[in-house]
Amino acid sequence: LFTGPEMDDVSYTCGTNDGVRFQGRVVITNELQVNHAVSAYRQFGKDPDRQNVYDLGEFFMQSICANMTAREFYINDFDILDDLLKAKLVDAQKARNDPDDGGTLLRPAICRIVEGKVKVFKPVPINSNIDELIRKEAEHQQAV
Q: Which residue, 12, 29, 54, 79, has fewest beta-carbon neighbours within 10 Å?
């Protein structure tokens, strides 16, 4: 198991609360905690990132997306998605270590999310032409 910082490319498909579906990807840089390498291997096998980074990253992106409109997710709030996802990943790690939140110190967070290293790339709408609608709207506003 590699214990240095590594970048994991996570794909997701999500739907906004107004029905627009997107496909996208995020890169999450994380580091397997050296003192948990053996327990990570015992618990997750050769790929501890599957449950601790990929599955959580996909789940949280779907959650973020579902709580926004297409315009918010794709345009208005796109610049804060990195921070929203990172906060959710870090909170999930903290919860694993907090007995009051159902976590246990016997099963601590396996991976550490590297500060400033969560990047959400522009998603692609798959059931809408929202990008074309927004472009036309911007052209119209410039003409006025």
A: 79
User: Model confidence over 91-141: pLDDT tens digits?
Assistant: 887 776 555 555 544 445 567 777 778 999 999 999 888 878 877 877 877
Coil, strand or helix: which one is 40?
helix
Residue 115, classified by CB atoms within 10 Å of its CB into exposed (0-12), middle (13-18) or buried (19+), is: exposed
Give burial (CB, 10 Å; 0-12/13-18/19+) of 112. middle
Q: Can you read off the two tokens belonging to residue 38? A: 């053996």
How many other CB atoms are found less than 10 A from the CB of residue 98? 13
Poorest-pLDDT segment among 5-9, 11-15, 22-26, 83-87: 5-9
CA-based nearest residue to 67, from 14, 13, 122: 14
Q: What is the dihedral of CA 95, 93, 85, 101, to 10 degrees?
A: 0
Q: Is pLDDT larger for residue 99 or for residue 47?
A: 47
Given the structure tokens 């995020």, which residue do they identify?
A: 26
